[in-house]
UniProtKB/TrEMBL annotation:
It comes from Candidatus Caldatribacterium saccharofermentans. HAMAP family: THF_DHG_CYH. Keywords: Amino-acid biosynthesis, Histidine biosynthesis, Hydrolase, Methionine biosynthesis, Multifunctional enzyme, NADP, One-carbon metabolism, Oxidoreductase, Purine biosynthesis. PANTHER family: C-1-TETRAHYDROFOLATE SYNTHASE, CYTOPLASMIC, C-1-TETRAHYDROFOLATE SYNTHASE, CYTOPLASMIC-RELATED. One of its GO terms (molecular function) is methenyltetrahydrofolate cyclohydrolase activity. This is Bifunctional protein FolD. InterPro entries: Aminoacid_DH-like_N_sf (IPR046346), NAD(P)-bd_dom_sf (IPR036291), THF_DH/CycHdrlase (IPR000672), THF_DH/CycHdrlase_cat_dom (IPR020630), THF_DH/CycHdrlase_CS (IPR020867), THF_DH/CycHdrlase_NAD-bd_dom (IPR020631). Its EC number is 1.5.1.5, 3.5.4.9. Residues 140-284 form the Tetrahydrofolate dehydrogenase/cyclohydrolase NAD(P)-binding domain.
Amino acid sequence: MTFPQLIDGKAIAAQIYEELRPRVASLVAQGFQPGLAVILVGENPASQVYVRNKERACEKLGIRSFRYHLPEKTDLGELLSLIDTLNACAEVHGILVQLPLPPHIEERNVLYRISPEKDVDGFHPYNLGRLMVGDPVFLPCTPWGIQELLRRSGIEVEGKHVVIVGRSNIVGKPLAMMFVQKAKGANATVSICHTRTPDLAEHTKRADILVAACGSPRVITGNMVKEGAVVIDVGINRVGEKLVGDVDFDSVVGKVSYITPVPGGVGPMTVAMLMANTVKAAERFFARAGERKQ
Ligand code: GUN
């Protein structure tokens, strides 16, 4: 019998905010305030909550946030022209387009238009390519948050078998790419499973670290995890009035060594890493502005 420890994402995110504070203060002292533009298209209720959380985090840190809430019927041309304006705006150092977009807008066309230097989500192919070759600039926020949760909880990834359930461009694929790197906090053996994987449990049972990022409520159950494994739950699903993860917490918790709760696990880390990327984007912007002056 092992004794599971809850990984407290809120507390670890709070540490990250404290580390960012002096960096923001130093920029502000030089007359530069970091700025994040957040674009929301339509009325998706979950997206509205996420956007509000991101704005609150900006407020807490003294980062300016600019919200653009566009109607559902916005067309691609209008959205691209807003992104062009923000790419050229000196007060905006990070641009985030909240996903999902309405179905008539091809997400790719939008994400590719954001300047890679303002791509604080790390979704532009330039930044994903830099991640792939092991020389990242902006890492996608949720995978980076997971890596930080593990590192700051003293959980070694090197030499471990990490099994990721989910192959999204936002979480599964970039996380696999991060953990497989020859680098600190990585050097893992990684398996990616997905909806077409036969005998999913055969794979998940072999995981030292299991990451559930498939977007369906409670699909990972106790009989699918190895005794003593570490379980990271990326899911946020609304079931009735409750928010539940992709992991069936009650059936898994008695078997594992560490587990993230939902809410309060990975979610706060995604926002914290977005703040970290925004501060980094602002620092890079001001360094370039300084070079231009010389
Ligand atoms: N929708 C769900 N997660 C994310 C995220 O990390 N960034 C953006 N822009 N949209 C999302």
